[in-house]
Write a structure and sequence with these properties.
Blueprint: H1 3-18, H2 21-28, E1 31-32, H3 37-63, H4 85-109, H5 114-148, E2 159-160
Antiparallel strand pairs: 1-2
Length: about 170
């Protein structure tokens, strides 16, 4: 695989991490209410992991004398403003599944360059762990609603501001 194709693959990997839905949501500040602390903490952890991974990917691109191209957020993310975090958790899972499929393809595509391949593989493993955390939140929320008779998403008294708005810098 040519150096240019490796850098292109790494930039696609960078975009998946740096322009992810969890990172977008930290700036969108979803509505939160009582009982959303765990979900907000999981979102914050995912965002921090993705920022750290994006930095490592960007550093490898620079080491290979490539140009960092972080990409743009997908337009569909703009629909996430002013929605509750408990609703957005299911959207997070949908995006996570799609990203994992793309990451698996990138792992295969980057197999000719050991460091790029290892970083893509590590990213895939991390995102699978994030998906498990999101699935666990959904299961816990479903159980809580079934046992407490709670109102559904976007109902009841909601506060604002789940996760803190952190500036996201690649390097």
């Amino acid at each position: 695989m040519s150096q240019g194709r490796i850098i292109d693959g790494l930039n696609r990997l960078l975009t998946l991490e740096y322009r992810s839905f969890p990172i977008y949501l930290t700036d969108a500040a979803p509505w939160t209410g009582p009982g959303d602390d765990k979900a907000a903490a999981v979102l914050d952890d995912i965002m921090a992991d993705q920022q750290a991974m994006a930095k490592r990917i960007a550093e490898l691109i620079l080491e290979l004398n490539g140009r960092i191209e972080p990409g743009e957020y997908p337009m569909e993310f703009t629909d996430a403003h002013f929605l509750s975090l408990d609703y957005l958790i299911k959207e997070l899972l949908r995006h996570q599944r799609r990203n994992i499929a793309e990451l698996a393809m990138l792992v295969r595509e980057l197999s000719d360059h050991r460091r790029a391949h290892d970083l893509a593989e590590e990213t895939l493993g991390s995102e699978r762990a994030h998906m498990e955390a999101i699935e666990s939140l959904i299961r816990a929320g479903d159980r809580r609603q079934a046992t407490d008779g709670q109102q559904g998403p976007n109902q009841g008294d909601r506060g604002h501001g789940a996760a803190d708005s952190r500036q996201t810098a690649v390097v």
